[in-house]
Structure formats: C-alpha cells, structure tokens
Amino acid sequence: MEGNTLKRLPDSEFELMKIVWANPSPISTNQIMLQLELGKQWKPQTVLTLLTRMIERGFLRSERAGKERIYYPLITRDEYVAFESGSFMERFHQNSFVSLMNTLYEKSQISEKEMDELKKWLDGKE
Questions:
Q1: Listed residue (77, 93, 69, 110) closest to 6, CA to CA
Q2: Of 20, 45, 105, 114, which is most buried, counting CB atoms within 10 Å of its CB?
Q3: Hey, what domains does the chain have and what are their CATH numbers?
Q4: Per-residue pLDDT tens over the stretch 64-118
C-alpha cells in the first residue's frame, strides 16, 4: 500500500478479501456473492458497502466491466498476513517469539510433532 499505513480489516471485510485473494483477478461482485459462505445471508447492498469501504481504505481497486463492477486486490494475502502477525506479536508478546511458543505450548495448542518440525526448521536457519 504505497503511501498508506496498513490497517487491520474488520472481520466482515476480511471475509470478502479472502474470497478476492482465492480467485484470479479481477473478480466481480456477483462472483463474490456466490462464494460467500452459506451461513452468511448478506444482502447485496451490504456487500457493496463493504467493498466500497475496502476501496476507500486502499485494499481494493474497482472498475466497471459492462454492467458489472470488478475488483482487483491492491495488497496480497501474504502482505496482510505479515502485517497482522507482526501486530499480534507486538501487542500480545512484546515481539517475543519465545513468549508466543510458551503460550501455545502451555495451552496444548502445539503438538510435540509440531515442536519437532519447528526445531528442524530453526536448525536449518543457522
């Protein structure tokens, strides 16, 4: 996002971005509507409002294609995940990877197998 500061997406907008990222670019409003989870009974106007906000905030670019509006992502999924991960680490673990691992391990959210894989990965970084 050139010149803009990346900001966290609200959950509803993140759901739409996941659809945009998962498809070849560009994607139409109708394609987005068809791919929304069945449990989400969002009205088309709600989706259009969210997409407009995402354009205003610099996450999407839009143009007309005949009678349809199509959307292009302006930030990749990897860029956004890196931003969110960094924000999470700073807010909750003071940028300490050890703090994160301790939390996951103590809450049994990471298995011994995953710990072994992590160790192998870390050993490969030396």
A1: 77
A2: 20
A3: 11-73 (1.10.10.10), 96-126 (no CATH)
A4: 999 999 999 999 999 999 988 887 777 777 877 777 777 777 877 788 888 888 8
CA–CA gap between residue 107 and residue 92 (Å, rounded): 15
3-state secondary structure 2-55: CCCCCCCCCHHHHHHHHHHHCCCCCEEHHHHHHHCCCCCCCCHHHHHHHHHHHH
Please state whether the peptide bond connecting residue 26 to the residue before it is cis, i.e. omega within 30 degrees of 0.
yes
Summarised one tens digit per residue, pLDDT across range 94-109 is 877 777 777 777 877 7
Q: Locate 57 and state its tokens.
A: 């905030």
The end-to-end CA distance of the chain, in Å, is 33
Taking each helix axis from N to C terminus, what angle separates 97-106 and 77-93, rounded to the nearest 10 degrees? Answer: 80
Cα–Cα dist 42/59, whole Å:
20
